[in-house]
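Worked example 2:
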Amino acid sequence: MASEHSFDIVSKLDLQEVKNAVDQAMKEIGQRFDFKGSASRISLDEGHIALVSDDNAKLQSVVRVLQERMVKRGISLKALDYGAVEGASGGTVRQKVTLVQGVASDKARKIVADIKGMKIKVQAAIQGDQVRVSGKKLDDLQAIIAHLQAQDYGVPLQFENYR
């Protein structure tokens, strides 16, 4: 009796934790002495975080505060895609940070190629923004997970629906 086992490789963010991290970062910016009288702020929109500050040096400090809060809330910094710093009104600068969710098709193809390169008898299939890996042996699937965790694909990977 040969049963198939499988798991999904996904990249998801807990948006509530992202919101909490942004709120904590804004609270810290409001309380820190080096930001007194500054126009520095962080706002969360649909899938984007907008950073605004007086100059590039202060903007880098805002980014550092945001990153610290994200790490403390358990959010991988790989899920943040930083845009270019651009000038804004009132002599300020702004930067747009995109929240990366889902495994992009080029990264999914690389994951599938790495899995096939391991020469283990499993099947890997791209399904939208996730990759499904299936095989007959649970040990093979666990070896795949261990191998993928050791790699860096530029996005945080989670392994779901392991059965």
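Residues 144 and 150 are 10 Å apart (CA to CA). The chain has a mean pLDDT of 87.
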